[in-house]
Amino acid sequence: MAALRGLEANARRLLKSSGQEHLLDFLSDDPHERETYLKELLTIDYEEMRELFQRATENSGAQVQKLDDLMRPLAEDQIEAEVRADPGRLEEYRTRGLEEISKGHVGVILMAGGQGSRLGVSYPKGMYDVGLQSKKTLFQLQAERILKVQQLAAQRHGRHGAIIWYIMTSAPTYDETLNFLKSNKYFGLNEKDVVIFKQGLLPCFNFDGKILLSRKNELALAPDGNGGIYKALEVNGVLDDFRKRGVLYLHCHSVDNILVKVADPVFVGYCVVKSADVGAKVVQKNSPTECVGVLCLVENIVQVVEYSEITEKTANLKNQDGELTFNAGNICNHFFSAEFLRRIAKLQMPLHVAKKKIPHVSNLGEFVKPTEPNGIKIEKFVFDVFAFADKFVAWEVPRESEFSALKNADSAGKDCPATAKQDLYRLHKNYLQRAGVGVVGDEVEIPPSVSYGGEGLDAWRGKTIVGPALIKD
User: Fold this and answer.
1) For residue 65, what pLDDT is reported?
2) What are the residue ranges in the chain where pLDDT is below 50?
3) Intra-chain end-to-end CA distance of the chain, in Å
4) Which of the 8 DSSP states describes residue 110?
5) Enclosing H/E stretch for 304
6) CB neighbour burial string for 22-49, b if at least 16 within 10 angstroms, e if fewer
7) Is 238 helix (H, G, I), strand (E, B) or coil?
8) What is the pLDDT, as a whole number, of residue 5?
9) How far apart are CA 350 and CA 372, in angstroms?
10) If DSSP states are collapsed to H, E and C, what string results for 306-331?
């Protein structure tokens, strides 16, 4: 008991000096719970939390600055487009990407911290099945694409290199993700080539900078945004793992794009040939006012400008060819050199404030579920490091072959399971038709083991497939 009293005394001194003594208002009578909670409180750097809150809120009350006068499109030497690329140049990029994969130089960072709450499920979004005939989840589709592109690289260059799959989860999704992959034998990947780690958590604050409690002996914590990946790579030893395994290049993407070409050899090859330390895939916006950030230059610095930061007039600007001037839609699909990730790991990242309705324990000890925003979550954005790149390039890809987000329930009618399934089927039908295969109906699915990106379908040339159909090896 003396040790417990000592813990409490230390916690009271620390919290009083930092203005957070309210965190001790409802200490549990259970000695074990009390000890666990006090030890957690003593691990927090409250001066750092105070500075984070101040930095994040400094400009949060100001109106969103319109950046129209500061924006310029990316320079011509910073962006190329797949549909306009010379076939020989495309093959050069593909060959180089497959070569780097065959040498074991390529890893994949999957940002998979999100839960499927907006989809109506409580488990990690990567475990979601949109209703494909194969019943494959997002995790399985992406794992099998890794297997296939490893195979293509080995066939092209005569040696097998493993693509290391680095999966960043949040604290709430870590155990379930790990158990799901283990129980499915990592969908054919070697267990030692799958590295799962957690992104960081930050306290939730009220508008006065007081840390909130989610329960009487539990801090209200939230993931620090997809930009927390850079610190997470360092604190979890992943940067050291790159060096140990000889990984030089990373393809980084979010889990919720059902069409993602994992470890895309063309994209990787393009970035390597261009000696880029950072690259980003983009798609053309589907309308001037689409709610998506655009990649551009702001005072000659690469930046993702959100749709809320430009006026409708600028959003509608067009070039002489009739295309939107600011048309490079960001899809959270990036390339990084391992050296760049090591360099920026210790940089102070910009902070963003999200005003939220945060369930919490009131100062009277009552659990409150607010109906209006009552506090803030501090977030970092993955694209905020683009400005630190010595050489940045963008690669424009067709939306219909590379991007279909899974964000909402079917009731929303867009970016939902129904549209994700439809977009995958449409792409696979297109692959077959380009290979000279007749297709009747719209529901055809090609497993990654058969084709990664439309190659390897010659065996079906001249035949007719009637949907719904699941192509077999």
Assistant:
1) 64
2) 63
3) 66
4) E
5) strand 301-305
6) ebbeeeeeeeeebeebbeebeebebeeb
7) helix
8) 80
9) 26
10) CHHHCCHHHHCCECCCCCECCCEEEE
AA identity, residue 281: K
Task: Determine which helix (DSSP H) or strand (DSSP E) holds 71, and give its type and residue range.
Answer: strand 71-72
How many Cβ atoms are within 10 Å of 349's Cβ, its own excluded?
20
Tell me whether strands 464-466 and 278-284 are parallel, antiparallel or unpaired.
unpaired
Residue whose token pair is 């990316």: 74
Query: How many of the other CB atoms lie within 10 Å of CB of 259?
Result: 20
Give the integer Cα–Cα distance in Å for 332 and 353.
20
DSSP 213: E
Structure tokens at 99: 């070569």
d(CA 419, CA 403): 11
The C-alpha atoms of residue 47 and residue 19 are separated, in whole angstroms, by: 10
- Tell me, what's the pLDDT at 320? 87
Q: Which residues sit opposite 71 in a β-bridge?
A: 298
Phi-psi region of 100 (alpha: psi -120 to 50; beta: other; left: phi over 0): alpha
What does the longest C-alpha to C-alpha distance in the chain come to? Answer: 82
What amino acid occupies position 55? R
CB of 444 within 8 A of CB of 428?
yes
Distances (CA, A) of 446 to 263, 404, 465: 18, 17, 12
As a whole number of angstroms, the distance between CA 252 and CA 165 comes to 10
Q: 87: cis peptide before it, omega within 30°?
A: no
Model-level pTM? 0.91
Contacts of 92 (CB under 8 A, 6+ apart): 269, 273
C-beta of residue 253 within 8 angstroms of C-beta of residue 111 = yes
* Cα(390)–Cα(340) distance, integer angstroms: 9
Beta strand pairing call for 278-284 and 392-396: parallel
Q: Which residues contact 134 (CB under 8 A, 6 or more apart)?
A: 445, 447, 470
Closest CA to 229 of 113, 309, 396: 113
Can you say how many angstroms the Cα of residue 117 is from the centroid of all Cα atoms in its chain?
17
pLDDT recorded at residue 61: 53
In whole angstroms, how large is the CA radius of gyration of the chain?
A: 24
Specify the DSSP element, H or E, that contains 4: helix 2-18
Per-residue tokens: 422: 């439809």
- Contacts of 164 by beta carbon, 8 Å cutoff, 6+ apart: 107, 108, 193, 194, 195, 241, 245, 247
Q: Are 255 and 108 in contact (CB under 8 A)?
A: no
Transcribe 344-368 into DSSP letters.
HTTS----EEEEE---EE-TTS-EE
Task: Specify the pLDDT at position 57.
Answer: 81
Give the model's pLDDT for residue 422. 97
CA 381/CA 301 separation, integer angstroms: 16
